[in-house]
Design a protein that fits this description.
By secondary structure, the protein is of the alpha/beta class. About 45% of the residues lie in helices and about 20% in strands. The strands form 2 sheets. It has an 8-stranded mixed beta sheet with strand order 3-4-2-1-5-6-7-8, sandwiched between helices. A 6-stranded parallel beta sheet has the order 11-10-9-12-13-14, sandwiched between helices. Helix 1 packs across helix 15, helix 3 runs parallel beside helix 5 and helix 8 packs across helix 13. The longest helix is centred in the C-terminal third of the chain and has 18 residues.
């Protein structure tokens, strides 16, 4: 196979989709699948080509004038295809990247894959400017991969007859192991979060509206846990959430940090007893897998694939998305664990995610989807 991989988020800077994109591309290349990445909006000036093992990275400069990026990319792709024909195009992200990938596939006469991540479906479906491109891409794709089973089901119902499969994220446990010396950083962070009796819950990533931090704070107040829990918020907060965290009447003690590099995250995850993801809608957050591998017990809504990752009351706590009472019950149950119970659940969570979501499974799911698309 020889793939043209279309993305807007590469190489990774702050994790999330970009980290997933890089991980999947590297996994395919390690399998011997030639994968050329066409990364839109990257670099400056002319197209930059970086040669990699089993594929090249083509950084396409920002869209100036508007509409130039896809045409520049098409010229590059057509020339490469003439020398060494591609067997597939892949759009990493369903909206813009998916539209470009399915367009290029039609022009090259090859099958196309669209990989649905999260916001590209949940949000863009309802936005006039993005929704048309999203629906066009999904209708044209030879096969569709979704990062969560519930999105796969909705896509299947919206486009009967399409090939739609769950393509879950994976996690390399060794990559997230706490290195010698990082215990000091873990302990330093934890010491900032109050007395030893307080349990620490971590909030990581882009802490924007869909993450629903206000709902979590309401759940904590409902069960009168403001003095029993501390929050470690690592990432970008919106103004509403920042204001709530500043008010001791609405939020427990918290420590806030800007985005950190992946190398700094294991110690921060390890400083937490729990990781909280109360999202209204989701894909399959890398943060969830990373934190579980580092020993944090998840408290999550059932949005996206999170309820497929976390086994309620065995490897963490799951509540109904946007349900304040259900969230309060999950937080209360988590806080009721004693030290031995926390240690047992932490161990189960780590073992579960390592066993069920290795990086090999992630890459195999995409390889299988490529084979289905070619039939």
């Amino acid at each position: 196979m020889r793939i043209a991989w279309i993305t807007e988020r590469y190489p990774p800077v702050r994790g999330g989709m970009a980290a997933s994109c890089a991980r999947q591309v590297m996994g395919l290349r390690k399998r011997g699948v030639w994968t050329d990445v066409l990364a839109f909006g990257s670099g400056a000036g002319d197209v930059t080509v970086a040669e990699r093992e089993n594929g090249d990275d083509l950084l396409i400069p920002p869209d100036d004038p508007p509409g130039s990026m896809p045409n520049i990319a098409w010229a590059q792709l057509r020339e490469r295809h003439a020398r060494h024909p591609y067997t597939h195009t892949v759009g990493f992200g369903a909206s813009w990247s998916g539209f470009v990938a399915t367009s290029f596939a039609r022009w090259l006469g090859v099958p196309s894959i669209v990989l649905v991540r999260g916001n590209d479906f949940d949000r863009d479906w309802f936005l006039p400017r993005h929704g048309e491109g999203l629906r066009t891409a999904l209708a044209a794709a030879s096969a569709i991969g979704s990062v969560s089973p519930e999105k796969a089901e909705r896509i299947q119902r919206s486009f009967p007859g399409r090939i739609v499969r769950w393509t879950p994220n994976g996690i390399d446990a060794e990559r997230w192991a706490l290195l010698p010396g990082e215990e000091k950083r873990r302990d330093e962070v934890r010491s900032l979060l109050g007395t030893p009796e307080r349990r620490v819950a971590g909030l990581f990533g882009e802490l924007k509206f869909k993450k629903r931090i206000p709902l979590l704070l309401e759940a904590i107040r409902d069960r009168r846990l403001l003095d029993s829990i501390s929050l470690l918020a690592v990432g970008e907060l919106d103004e509403e959430t920042s204001a709530l965290l500043d008010d001791p009447a609405t939020a427990p003690l918290s420590v806030r940090m800007p985005f950190r590099s992946p190398d700094e995250l294991p110690a921060l995850y390890a400083a937490c007893d729990f990781v909280a993801l109360p999202s209204a809608f989701e894909g399959m957050p890398n943060v969830l897998l990373e934190a579980m591998v580092c020993g944090a017990i998840p408290i999550v809504s059932d949005a996206g694939a999170m309820s497929n990752v976390v086994i309620d009351r065995e490897t963490g706590f799951v509540f109904r998305a946007e349900n304040r009472d259900s969230a309060a019950g999950a937080v209360s149950a988590a806080m009721a664990l004693d030290a031995d119970q926390r240690a047992t659940m932490s161990k189960r969570a780590r073992e579960h995610v390592i066993r069920e979501f290795p990086p090999e499974r992630e890459v195999s799911a995409i390889v299988e989807l490529l084979a289905l698309a070619a039939r």
